[in-house]
Amino acid sequence: MGLAIKDLLMSGPIVVNIGIEQFYHDLKKQDAKVVHVDWRPSALKSDLLSKLRKLREGGAN
């Protein structure tokens, strides 16, 4: 069934970073156990990326 809760708590936190690579690098600098998954939302299913770009450029909507 995998690791027991006690084993997980004793081994310390393990982080799976999904998407924003800078978070991964910041955690590595702190000697955290971390892996990075290069993930991006599908542009075909959502206009999330365009909304995020507008926010980055200072647009409200």
Kindly describe this structure.
The protein has 3 helices and 2 strands. 41% of the residues lie in helices and 16% in strands. It is elongated and about 45 Å long. Helix 2 (21-29) links the parallel strand 1 and strand 2. Strands 1-2 form a two-stranded parallel ribbon. By secondary structure, the chain is of the alpha+beta class. The chain has helices at residues 5-11, 21-29, 48-56, and strands at 14-18, 33-37. The chain starts with a helix and ends in a 5-residue tail after the last helix.
Average pLDDT, all residues: 79
How many DSSP helices? 3
Q: How would you sum up the global shape? A: elongated
Poorly predicted tracts of residues: none
Structural class comes to alpha+beta
Query: SSE string, helix = H, strand = E?
Result: HEHEH
Could you name the key traits of this structure?
single chain; 61 residues; alpha+beta; two-stranded parallel sheet; 3 helices
Topology summary:
Layout: H1 5-11, E1 14-18, H2 21-29, E2 33-37, H3 48-56
Parallel strand pairs: 1-2
Short description:
The protein is an alpha+beta fold and 61 residues long. Helix content is 41%, strand content 16%. It contains three helices and two strands, in the order H-E-H-E-H.
